[in-house]
Write a structure and sequence with these properties.
The complex is a heterodimer of chains A (74) and B (784). Chain A is 65% helix and 0% strand. Chain A is an all-alpha fold. With 784 residues, chain B is α+β, with helices and mostly antiparallel strands. Chain B has 27 helices and 19 strands. Classes of the chains: A mainly alpha (74), B alpha+beta (784).
């Protein structure tokens, strides 16, 4: 049995862990855009995501999807 | 954090004098055994104060204050000294006015479990239970973000509902207009779309043109009327002049016009003489005459010719009047011509259908068309003709203009409604997407949060159950549900399976011993989760008091197994069984440091000494001089009994039933004899670096080789080690030593050289010791 244990990075807080999962799930569902992931993660972790933020994030994803569809059709 | 090296405590609770506990860094567990009142809790409290700034067990007692009662009686808080060394770092702590200051930062990671809070945790209300788990599942900030997401969704839904309402209103208004228009096919929207394509501006322009044409014709008509009125005025004045001339003819004089001229001359002379000074002579014939007489003569003459003068004045007035109206008529004519000339442009305008329909030839009005050098009278004549032809179209032009205006207004209105409808459709479609996306996001965030917290709870309850099943194998008792109360925030419900009854409240059905274990397993699962880096010191302060001897063995084994998840485990206990488990070969004594506390006294405080393992103690006894034959025989017998007792339980060997469940050495030897015909110990072979080979290879041995010889010598235990017996006195020291040495060889033949434990953990085909599986010593068979 080792005398000392390895020093791993400090474990994430539940808020951080959950925010990570939330962002992964939202990305998977195409409800947010990848380039906003870090901002969303940060604001969700801190509890500072406002109503307007969500609106903008979601609309960006809708726009991106619409553009994708348009390009796809083209 | 590394394993503990030492703890120094002075003037702190029971440590009335300086206590130094030296920990063995090579061992993951320190078992501190002491009877009640020997200072175990003082040691645990000192670790708690250092690691958690906690007053430790005093927190569970009433009417005590840390500042007053943490110092040893008769000492002050300033006298307290706590020093802990681990991994080369030395922490010191004291008791201050407002807490327990320490250095250096951060504190060592230490978690202390005591019996009182242990039971409280299981018995706690759901809210209190939540507090214990809060650290792991409190996602308040994410919940705040989720709340704003919900607001965004609610707001989007409201906007969507409004857009639907607006869409319905726009559609209804369009339908209304469409209905008024006679419901033209194919439908209101298509109709609106087609209407809206019309150019309202062009329609308005056409209406304007029609109105301008109508207005221009009316204007020309008016100018013509004005011109004609002026001409009539001239005629009237000329009639008056004729009448004056007729009056002149009626005058008595044959040559009335000459007399009228004379009257003019006289009036002029009289006027001339009336102002200024004049000589007495006629200003006309220059004859000498008094000026006053001349004036009087002229007045007399004028009086005489008064009728002629009256006619003369009327004639002058009439002529002036005729001249005046004639002068006024000229602009009227010009105005008419100017008003009539633009009408010519209407004759070829396709948008003025009523005029076009007259099919008039513009060339017929060439004089009117000229802007200079034209014959005014002819132009007036042509203008008069043109106006007379166009005037009848005025009404139609006005009607058409109104119709175009109405159509333009309708187009504008329908266009506005159509645009409003289309916009509302567009808006509602866009908002529907946004609302649906926000709703989807909200669902994902909510589900992820619930899954996340439930996964933690499941992991905790799963680990709790796993630990629990180690202590209570094959018992139909387990935590089945650990979940957040859906109706209350920060409230954690727990349910258990009890003898096939799911979802019971464990407090109601579990025995105290089971609740003890359950609470311990729950706390251990939490603490493991809290320190995934395995860098915390675990302190179990006399936690298990209601657990029977069978379960203590399993709990002790569990503590050994789980000690790998922590930097160090410190167990304090007043139960001698704990000491004996680790001291005898049925416990992993080589992984464990045994510390015993001696009886406490205020004068000497807490004192401790290291306890030897049973085998080591027996080795010392053999080597001791003088040789203590009785104690050596006794120690060997007890060691042998403890081994055989454990093996008979492990292999379910037959022993005669007794009321108290105790068995003699002879009974145990008989019971286990068949085992040693078969038993084998397989020790892992090591590679050149001293690590177990992987895949493992084993070297078998047969512990039975010592067994029969021990059976032959076992009587020594009773005759020398236990009783007054004349025969015992005849047994030489060498036989006593042989008995002890054989016992040691027997014990060592059964135990793991690494952990010191007899393999007792069943893994299906065999038993293993406490070492990690790849390097574990095995004992076969798994059953007799």
């Amino acid at each position: 049995m080792p005398e000392t244990t390895p020093t791993n990075p400090a474990p994430k807080s539940p808020n951080e862990e959950l925010a990570d999962l939330v962002v992964v799930e939202l990305l998977k569902a195409g409800l947010i855009v990848d380039r906003k992931s870090e901002e969303i993660k940060s604001k969700v972790t801190a509890g500072t995501a406002r109503q307007d933020d969500w609106q903008v994030w979601i609309e960006q994803a809708i726009d991106q999807r619409a553009k994708g569809e348009t390009h796809g059709e083209a | 954090m590394a394993r503990l090296e030492h703890l120094i405590v002075a003037n702190f609770r029971g440590a009335s004098s300086k206590l130094k506990l030296d920990f063995d860094k090579s061992k993951s567990i320190a078992v501190i055994f002491g009877e009640n009142g020997t200072g175990k809790s003082t040691i645990a409290d000192a670790l708690d104060a250092m690691g958690n700034a906690s007053a430790g067990s005093l927190n569970d007692r009433s009417s005590v204050t840390p500042k007053d009662h943490l110092p040893t009686i008769g000492k002050a808080s300033k006298d307290i000294q706590i020093e802990l060394k681990a991994g080369g770092v030395t922490w010191t702590a004291s008791i201050g006015r407002d807490g327990i200051p320490f250095a250096p930062d951060p504190r060592p990671k230490i978690r202390v479990l005591r019996r009182a809070p242990l039971l409280a945790m299981v018995n706690a209300q759901p809210a209190k239970r939540y507090e214990e788990l809060k650290h792991f599942i409190d996602v308040q900030r994410v919940e705040t973000a989720e709340s704003t997401l919900k607001d965004a969704f609610t707001s989007a839904k409201r906007a969507f509902d409004q857009s639907i309402s607006q869409r319905n209103t726009a559609e209804s208004q369009l339908r209304e207009v469409w209905t008024k228009e006679g419901t033209p096919a194919p439908g209101p929207m298509e109709w609106a779309e087609s209407v809206a394509t019309a150019d309202a501006d062009a329609l308005q322009g056409k209406a304007k043109s029609l109105r301008e044409a109508s207005s221009a014709i009316k204007g020309a008509e008016q100018r013509l009327a004005d011109f004609d009125t002026a001409n009539l005025a001239i005629a009237a004045k000329q009639v008056e002049a004729v009448k004056v001339e007729e009056e002149a003819v009626q005058l008595p004089s044959a040559d009335g016009n000459t007399v009228i001229a004379l009257v003019g001359l006289l009036r002029s002379t009289a006027t001339f003489l009336a102002t200024g000074s004049h000589e007495d002579q006629c200003p006309v014939c220059v004859q000498r005459i008094p000026i006053d007489k001349l004036k009087s003569d002229i007045q007399a003459r004028l009086k005489e010719l008064a009728p002629y003068e009256a006619v003369r004045e009327k004639r002058a007035t009439a002529a002036k009047a005729v001249q005046s109206v004639q002068q006024a008529t000229l602009p009227q004519m010009e105005k008419f011509i100017l008003a009539a000339r633009p009408l010519l442009s209407f004759l070829t305008r396709a948008d003025l259908e009523p005029i076009c329909a007259l099919n008039l030839d513009p060339n017929a009005y060439s004089e009117l068309a000229k802007t200079e050098g034209f014959d005014q009278d002819l132009a007036v004549t042509q203008g008069r003709v043109l106006v007379s032809l166009l005037a009848p179209t005025n009404a139609i032009l006005d009607v058409n203009a109104d119709a175009e205006t109405r159509t333009a207004a309708q187009v504008t209105s329908v266009d506005t409604l159509n645009k409003a409808y289309k916009k509302s459709v567009q808006d509602s479609e866009s908002l529907e997407k946004t609302q649906a996306a926000l709703e989807g996001a909200l669902g994902i965030v909510r589900k992820t949060r619930i899954d996340f917290t439930q996964a933690i709870l499941n992991a905790v309850s799963g680990e709790c159950n796993r630990l629990y099943s180690v202590v209570h194998p094959n018992e139909k008792v387990a935590i089945t549900k650990l979940e957040l109360d859906p109706d209350r925030r920060a409230s954690l419900n727990q349910k258990a399976d009890f003898q096939g009854h799911p979802d019971v409240t464990p407090q109601a059905y579990f025995s105290e011993s089971h609740l003890d274990t359950l609470a311990f397993c729950f706390w251990l699962a939490l603490t493991k989760r809290e320190f995934p880096n395995k860098d915390a010191v675990l302190v179990l302060d006399d936690v298990f008091t209601s657990v029977d001897s069978q379960h203590i063995g399993r709990i002790a084994q569990l503590v050994v197994d789980e000690s790998q998840q922590f930097a160090h485990v410190v167990v304090t206990t007043h139960q001698r069984q704990w000491r004996d488990i680790y001291r005898n070969p049925y416990g992993p004594g080589r992984l464990t440091q045994l510390i015993e506390l001696q009886r406490w006294a205020l004068a000497k405080g807490i004192s401790n000494y290291k306890t030897k393992l049973a085998v080591a103690e027996l080795v010392s006894s053999i080597k001791a001089a003088p040789f203590e034959r009785q104690s050596t025989a006794s120690q060997a017998g007890i060691l042998l009994e403890s081994i055989l007792d454990g093996l008979s339980l492990q292999y379910r060997c037959r022993v005669p039933r007794t009321a108290d469940g105790n068995y003699t050495l002879g009974e145990l030897l008989n019971a286990t004899s068949s085992l040693f015909n078969k038993a084998e110990i397989h020790r892992p072979s090591m590679d050149p670096t001293g690590l177990p080979q992987n895949p493992p290879q084993f070297t078998p041995s047969k512990p039975g080789e010592y067994f029969e010889r021990l059976r032959d010598l076992a009587f020594i235990r009773n005759q020398v080690g236990a009783h007054f017996n004349p025969l015992g006195a005849e047994i030489p020291d060498s036989e006593v030593e042989a008995f002890a040495s054989l016992t040691i060889q027997f014990a060592e033949g059964l135990t793991c050289t690494a952990c010191g434990q007899i393999p007792a953990r069943g893994v299906g085909t065999h038993f293993e010791c406490s070492c990690p599986s790849v390097g574990a010593t095995r004992m076969l068979p798994a059953m007799l």
